[in-house]
Amino acid sequence: MTQFALVGADIFDGTVIRADHGLLIRDGRIAALLPRAQLGADIRVETLDGGLLAPGFVDVQVNGGGGVLLNDAPTREGVAKICNAHAMFGTTALLPTLITDTPQLTAAAVAAVKQAIAGEMPGCVGLHLEGPFLSPEKRGAHDAQLIRQMDDADVDAIVAMGIETLLLTLSPERVPVRIIRRLVDGGVIVSIGHSNASYDQILAAVDAGARGVTHLYNAMSPLTHRAPGVVGAALESGGLWCGLIADGHHVHPAAISIALRAKRQPGRIFLVTDAMSTVGSDIREFDLNGRRITRRDGVLVLDDGTLAGSDLDMMSAVRFMVETIGLDITEALRMASTYPADFLRRADLGRIAEGARADLVHIDAALEAKAIWRGGVRL
């Protein structure tokens, strides 16, 4: 048995901040959070130098990192590089995300993620397939030649993938309600994105079991006074959880503030990075489906100026929410950990609670990640 305690920092458990407490970790799991005076004298203690100890971040949309893009490296090694790159910024659990690609490459990515999960690879908790069942009009950086309609054979193949936490982004105006229901009944988490659907079409998809909205505001029909669109449905429906790219480029700060005030619960807005291979690397450009993407001033763009994923890490997103949006640090941390974990229905992630994975990030006064633990192992 491996057991130790962390002390010396305030501890945010996902609900409240506790001072003068110790966090007991046993065999990679949270064993207890208790007043420091109650820690046994025989327990090995690691003392932190102030700051805040919080749940590790959970990112449901990570296309790449560390110089690797899942589309280009659909292997177990590629997944490991992505997970390790984002871990240094506090993300201890993520869904490697495949951007619309060929059936052959999709199969390779599925196999790679299954191998990673079977081998208990730290950081990899599932797979996000973003496409190819999207709206051509709202495709963003997705290759129009690879976007297609979904049929029953696709549903059979997706449900049979055998990945417990499987997220699929699709466009409801191109996928019938009965197919959405089949996916949900098969255990798939359905998210709405790259969609030009109407407000009523989105509500029908929610009734069929759709649970999320992929990168709120981006690549979707907007909220207008007579046609609320995907954005209006996302904010009005309590059944939808909404990912948000908080980098100051994808969504205007005022639009973020409005969304936070408007969102009907129990669904919440949570942070995603939509990160590409540049995060954790010094590369300046790369290719996606044969098209060049350039990195400049914190933005990734195609040659025509279209945004193509992000150059964002989760610690930076939290800092943006606090320093630019003015959100309390506890709510910003929930948006990066607890809320995405709840969206995925993963009670073992995104919180400091007995039995949860000992995934932790130690944050200093400048809101920088000073230390990270995955499964109780310090990186």
Report on this structure.
The protein has 379 residues and is an alpha/beta fold. 25% of the residues lie in helices and 26% in strands. It has 10 helices and 23 strands. The strands form 5 sheets. An 8-stranded parallel beta sheet has the order 8-11-12-13-14-15-16-17. Strands 3-2-7-21-22-23 form a 6-stranded mixed beta sheet, with no helix packed on it. The model has no long low-confidence stretch (mean pLDDT 95).
How far apart the termini lie comes to 20 Å
Strand content: 25-35%
User: What topology, given as strand order, has the largest sheet?
Assistant: 8-11-12-13-14-15-16-17
Which residues form runs of ≥5 with pLDDT under 50? none
Alpha carbon gyration radius: 20 Å
- How many distinct helices? 10
Mean pLDDT: 95
